[in-house]
Structure formats: structure tokens, C-alpha cells
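Justification of computing resources. Each target in the renewal requires a structure prediction run like the one illustrated here; the chain below, 303 residues long, is used simply to show the kind of job we budget for.
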Amino acid sequence: MRPMLALLFAAFAVTAHAESTLLYNINGYTMNNGDKVRLAAIEYEDGVIKKTYRPGEAVDGSEADQRIDGKGRTVLPGLIDAHGHVGGYGWALGAVDLTGSSSEFEAAQRVAAFIEDQTSATNWVVGRGWNQVLWPGKAFPNRAALDAISKRRPIALGRVDGHALWVNSAALELAGIDDDTKDPDGGQIIRDAEGKATGVLIDNAMDIVWETIGEPTIAELEAQIVRGMEAAAATGLTTVHDAGISARELEAYRNLQRRGELPIRAYPMLSVLDPANDPILDAGPSRTDDGMLIVRSVKISAD
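Resulting C-alpha cells:
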């Protein structure tokens, strides 16, 4: 072990000196063989902790290049979310949030505000979170409220439970749904007393619209993943486990890792429901050299 350390130190001697940092005046906690340990200061370099200081232990002898006063704040080991859906979360952050809307009118106004705030408008406007049970009368919404906002841009808004979709007339037209369209197996096109489609689609009927929207591009998947991971990082998370991804999502993850654009570490689980994951499973576990992307887990769904 000693010769190896000597070689490492020699290597550092002939390369540029890495900047070391002392974070002091903290209320830090970590674990040591199952025991909780309190820390008053941490010295680290290149993301690796080199030394820790217990309460009362002097830090005057530290040779760190820079010092940061923690001002008594609490420091914890990096938190990990063990079950999330990063891309879906990122998608939701870039969509209309209708959670808690108190009426059909309020939900529609949120859509209008979202469209107005968009800096670069894409064709489809998507969102999720409405719940008619919270509205006066508790009735399903109607496409007329969305048509009043936009007759040109198609709008598709998922219910809070994901089992219903509220769309406008432009979306129905693009999806090829009219008053004469038959209900698909396992789905329903809600109609009014005159038999006209109201703009609410239930369960498998939603697929007609989702298939019309189509799958996101790899670039769009990358953007969704980054958006979700940046939001996770803002809450203090250092790693996220993405529970059930497709082969295309893994491609997006790998692209981001190669470009150094993953904000935090990712531990995605391959979904067995995607046949394109089969060759990836055959290849076995993988871990990038920087530890930012680890693929060695599988998500199995059964009913």
C-alpha cells in the first residue's frame, strides 16, 4: 500500500496542484461503521474528503487553499432518491401544472398563462393535474373552455390520476377523433347529450392522442432529464434512481454523461417492458469512470 501512495503523491507533484478546501464552523454528521459521528470541519479536494475534524479539534494547521465558513449550518451526507421518474418529472416541470385548480375556468386560465409565458412555442401544449372533483358541480370539463384559449394549437391535459385526458378541438382533429369515432377497447370518448365528443378521453382512448403527439426526440429526452435532475439537485439530492427507463432514455443519459452534463449522479433501472433493453441487459452492468452513471438494476412490472 505504501509504494502505491508514494506513486500517487509523485504523480500529483508533476501535475497541476488541485485546489483544496476547508469547510469549517459546521454542524456536520456522517456515519462510521454504523455509528453517527459529529463533525466540525471537513477538508476536501477534487470532490474527495481528505480529512474531518471533530468538535473542539483545531483547524489552524490546515493547509487548504481556501476556507469556507459554514456559519454553524448543518452538513449531511449526500441524499439519494431511491425511486423516481426523472424524465417524467422533467416533462412535468416543462408542462402546465393544473394541480389544485379550483374550477374549469381556473384550469383554462393556467393554460392561457402558460402559453403567454412561453419563450419558444412548440406545437402541442401539454399539462397535467386537473381534478373535476374539486370543481363546482364536479362535472368533467369541455373542449370549449380550451377552444376559447386556442383554436390553432392542440392542447392535451392529463387528469391528476392519469386516467383521463382533456383536449381541445385542434387536438381532436389532429388525432382523427370526431363524433362518429368508436370507443376503443378499454377506453371511452366522453360525449354530450347530443352525441358530440366533449374533449375528454378515458384510459385507452387517450392513446389516440398520445400516439399522435409521438415519442420525444433524444434531444427532448435529454432536456427533460436535465430539467428533472436540476430540480432534484436544488433540493439537496446528489443521486437519483430512475425507476424504469427505456433504451432511448438510456441513450439520452449516456449522451449527457459523455458531455459532462449530468447535474448529479444517476442510477437508472432498465424497464423489462421495453424490448430494446434486451441487448443492454445481455451486455451486463455498466458504470462510467466518473461514477456519474451506473446501470445495473432492472424494473419489473406485473399485475
